[in-house]
Amino acid sequence: MNLIFTKDLVPGMCTGRDVIAGDGFIKLLTQGAVLNQSQIDSLRNWGVPAINIDDPTEKMQEKVIAVHMTKTEFAKGYTETIDKIVHAFRHIKKFREVPIAEMQELVDQKIILLAETIGVLEHLHDIRCYSENTFNHSLHVAIITGILGKWCNYRGTELKKLILTGLLHDIGKLVVPLSILNKPGRLSAEEFAAIKKHPQDGYQVLKDARIPENIKLGIWQHHERLDGSGYPLGLIGDEICAEAKIISIADVYDAITSDRVYRRKMTPFEALDILADDLFEKLEPVFCLTFMDNMRDYLIGSSVILSNGQKADIIAFYARDRGFTKPVVCTQNGKLLDLQQEELCITGVG
């Protein structure tokens, strides 16, 4: 670990310790954050003289692929991957068997690269498609699972298995009628019962496949919740496998931040507040806190729209508060606003 002057920071360096300002109340960055230019600018604006950096050379090398993945390249890779998912899922629906080798190749050659792309979550937020489209939602969950998996120290083969679980988590929906999946109104009891069967249906499709059992369990259990309120089995606590606990966070986040037939997508900030509400009771605290802490770092420097229509940039979040829609922002005229003290909140990204 080295103490590096803020003026000498470059994108790709990794923080060795939390960076705290405002007499200990405002967390600018958490330990392990990989710096981008917006975060570096924010540190300079706060007057932070120097921060601890951990293995900067290694981290910079680790991000080379991501740095060179442009928005156009991401869109091309995304479209190519969706085309392959559509082909594979139609095969699954017709023959009730999963082309595992094809799916694993997709993870190894495409999805890993998409998950490594700088700005990947912004790219996904910009993609305007109904998340009830199982193809797009499955890819989004696979990518977000890969991101969260890395934050939770999954590496190599284990990370790829986790991403494969995310990719296949909703294959049980392929047997649910589209009239139910795409229904804009409230589902009847019978329709909701059909939806609630999809984790078990997905497990049944994969039951005889030659893949690790934890992948199958992750698919079967991804709608289970710690307090027993989930489905299809009503499992509690440690009865739920780690893969399902991670997939559930990625699944909820993408569902909230994607368009649905019955509502428009919400902002990442609103999604994180909703996840915070489910922390401890429904979602695994260790994984969920890891996601929220890293997302806090990820979102610093983001451009947002406030409830009064003003545009602003995220400067910092409070270290001891999970109010993601109420950070410290800088408006376009250079005015700093602490939204905790204002009758304003974030209503859009842009």
Automatic annotation (TrEMBL):
Residues 112-307 form the HD-GYP domain. InterPro entries: HD/PDEase_dom (IPR003607), HD_GYP_dom (IPR037522), HDIG_dom (IPR006675). SUPFAM superfamilies: HD-domain/PDEase-like. NCBIfam families: HDIG (TIGR00277). PANTHER family: CYCLIC DI-GMP PHOSPHODIESTERASE PA4108 (PTHR43155:SF2), CYCLIC DI-GMP PHOSPHODIESTERASE PA4108-RELATED (PTHR43155). This is Response regulator/sensory box/HDIG domain protein. It comes from Sporomusa ovata.
